[in-house]
């Protein structure tokens, strides 16, 4: 793991676009080819408009009726073909976009879900990238249309330049004069996007403040504390701090872009003067230069705009998608072993240290610990001691910075994450509220039995959540979440019990982790739940299951077989409750303080 705060660099823009194009072709090859071909065919008639106007002028001035008729028919055919091809192309492109959007959204979700660890969900610079990708994934399908349109505008430019060169080769310089606009158009979005990336943290904070000020979850505290005005003012201030440097960059880049267009405008005027006065060309040739030059101006503007559009938004979405693909591929560890069927000796940590990615501060420092097979282990310590981090390492949500974890004699790093997760279950304090049917909100703990009433009912009973289900209008078939039709809202404690039931869905895990999952419940209820489950763990436990409890309530952890006391990222004491109390160390002191408070 890198101890620096610098994120991995984004892949190059062109290769990212190419990878996105290949992704679209893989999912919708026929529709993609049809959309591309039709977009190019639709570009040709429009590019020939200047030619028909020149022929029409030549026919009128030369009194040649047949030429006038042919030019008029050409103009009519061009208009008809342009309308027809654009209509068909638009419909095909819309169908292609609808299909490829679903594929892209699924692809992004699958990539994030396939990463075994959660560093990309907790590292700020990665969160910024993922936030921008989430905002853009729903419109990444436009990138295909933008690529097709760019090719169409370039085709128009090629035909128009050929028409100008037919008058005089020097007129090709008019296209050269357009290069500064191309340069500034491709440069502008880049510098603007860098400024936006730097302001992403301010933008995320502004959105968070808006959510806090406008949603029901925080509504009570916002009103009781009377902080609505402060939230609004701070959001405005935060947005201003993020927007000010972006606005400054946009003004500067706009000035350079305007200067580039001034160069092209002078070249266009010079080309007309050169043909009309310098060459003394016939009126039809001057008309061709006027028409082709004006079309060239329009085509250059459209091409430049499309390139800027492509680079300024879709390229950056494509680069973040390519980065996520590379990150997900790199995160796949060299794990080739299945999870064991049972534990003989237990789980062992040998000199494990850990620092979160992007930081150098050790959250766990040289931790060596043995969790015996079949034991109930409680982990205690003050906030920030490393308890939850230790749980994350056991669940393979992170890999140790140094040291190793063993399942018996098998390194956990060699065990496939998906295989280990099937033998792991648990509940956490920071659980997620799945606003689904109550049956599914619990059944997600073991998707094989998502719709099976009996396993879900057993999990509810283990978690002591029968009272929660009994109060739901339709029992386990009740839709959770007040924001849905027929949905009901439940209290935080009820959500926590349902989350605990979800963690009890698997019958025979090798590791059960309970990381303060009952913090919202009263001490008596927590004690009863843990006592019941500890008794079950000490009963039929042929697989050697290890149960890890994390709690601040010493009345609960005293029932554990082994208590691990953590302080300052280190393990300072290990032993049973009675042994640790007799020792008179940190555990005895903390237990005494809490016991006195209860008395």
UniProtKB/TrEMBL annotation:
InterPro entries: AAA+_ATPase, ABC1_TM_sf, ABC_transporter-like_ATP-bd, ABC_transporter-like_CS, P-loop_NTPase, Type_1_exporter. GO terms for cellular component: plasma membrane. SUPFAM superfamilies: ABC transporter transmembrane region, P-loop containing nucleoside triphosphate hydrolases. PROSITE patterns: ABC_TRANSPORTER_1, ABC_TRANSPORTER_2. It is found in: Cell membrane. It holds the Pfam family ABC_tran. It is a multi-pass membrane protein. GO terms for molecular function: ATP binding; ATP hydrolysis activity; ATPase-coupled lipid transmembrane transporter activity. The keyword Nucleotide-binding applies. Its main location: membrane. Residues 347-593 form the ABC transporter domain. The chain crosses the membrane at residues 32-55, 67-85, 153-179, 258-277, 284-302. Gene3D superfamilies: ABC transporter type 1, transmembrane domain, P-loop containing nucleotide triphosphate hydrolases. This is ABC transporter related protein. It comes from Gemmatirosa kalamazoonensis.
């Amino acid at each position: 793991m890198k101890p620096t705060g610098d994120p991995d660099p984004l892949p190059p823009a062109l290769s990212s676009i190419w990878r996105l194009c290949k992704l679209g072709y893989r999912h919708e090859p026929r529709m993609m080819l049809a959309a591309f071909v039709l977009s190019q065919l639709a570009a040709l008639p429009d590019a020939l408009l200047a030619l028909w106007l020149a022929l029409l002028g030549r026919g009128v001035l030369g009194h040649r009726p047949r030429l006038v008729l042919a030019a008029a028919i050409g103009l009519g055919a061009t208009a008809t073909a342009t309308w027809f091809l654009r209509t068909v192309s638009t419909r095909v492109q819309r169908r292609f976009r609808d299909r490829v959007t679903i594929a892209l959204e699924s692809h992004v979700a699958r990539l994030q879900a396939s990463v075994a660890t959660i560093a990309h969900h907790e590292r700020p610079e990665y969160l910024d990238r993922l936030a921008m990708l989430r905002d853009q994934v729903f419109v990444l399908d436009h990138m295909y249309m933008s690529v097709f349109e760019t090719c169409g505008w370039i085709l128009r430019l090629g035909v128009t330049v050929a028409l100008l060169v037919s008058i005089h080769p020097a007129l090709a310089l008019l296209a050269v004069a357009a290069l500064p606009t191309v340069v500034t158009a491709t440069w502008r979005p880049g510098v603007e996007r860098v400024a936006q990336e730097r302001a992403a943290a301010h933008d995320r904070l502004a959105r968070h403040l808006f959510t806090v000020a406008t949603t029901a979850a925080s509504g009570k505290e916002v009103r009781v504390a009377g902080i609505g005005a402060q939230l609004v003012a701070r959001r405005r201030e935060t947005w201003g701090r993020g927007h000010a440097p972006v606005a400054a960059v946009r003004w500067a880049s706009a000035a350079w872009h305007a200067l580039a267009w001034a160069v092209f405008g002078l070249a266009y005027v010079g080309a007309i003067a050169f043909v009309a006065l310098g060459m003394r060309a016939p009126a039809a040739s001057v008309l061709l230069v006027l028409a082709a030059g004006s079309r060239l101006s329009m085509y250059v503007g459209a091409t430049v705009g499309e390139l800027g559009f492509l680079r300024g938004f879709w390229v950056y979405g494509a680069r973040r998608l390519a980065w996520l693909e590379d990150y997900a591929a790199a995160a796949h560890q060299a794990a080739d072993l299945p999870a064991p069927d049972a534990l003989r000796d237990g789980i062992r940590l040998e000199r494990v240290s850990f620092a979160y990615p992007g930081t150098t501060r050790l959250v766990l420092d040289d931790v060596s610990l043995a969790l015996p097979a079949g034991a109930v282990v409680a982990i205690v310590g003050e906030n920030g001691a490393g308890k939850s981090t230790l749980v994350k390492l056991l669940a393979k949500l992170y890999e140790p910075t140094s040291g190793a974890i063993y399942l018996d004699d098998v390194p956990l790093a060699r065990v496939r994450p998906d295989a280990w997760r099937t033998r792991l279950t648990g509940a956490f304090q920071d659980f997620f509220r799945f606003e689904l049917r109550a049956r599914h909100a619990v059944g997600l703990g073991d998707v094989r039995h998502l719709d099976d009433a009996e396993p879900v009912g057993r999990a509810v009973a283990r978690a002591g959540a029968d009272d929660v289900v009994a109060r739901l209008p339709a029992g386990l078939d009740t839709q959770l979440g007040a924001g849905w039709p027929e949905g009901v809202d439940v209290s935080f404690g009820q959500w926590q019990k349902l989350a605990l039931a979800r963690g009890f869905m698997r019958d025979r895990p090798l590791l059960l982790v309970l990381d303060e999952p009952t913090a919202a419940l009263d001490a008596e209820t927590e004690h009863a739940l843990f006592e019941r489950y500890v008794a079950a763990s000490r009963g039929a436990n042929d697989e050697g299951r290890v149960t890890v409890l994390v709690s601040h309530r010493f009345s609960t952890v005293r029932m554990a077989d082994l208590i691990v006391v953590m302080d300052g990222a280190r393990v300072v004491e290990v032993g049973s409750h009675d042994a640790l109390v007799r020792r008179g160390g940190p555990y005895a002191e903390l237990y005494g303080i809490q016991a006195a408070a209860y008395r």
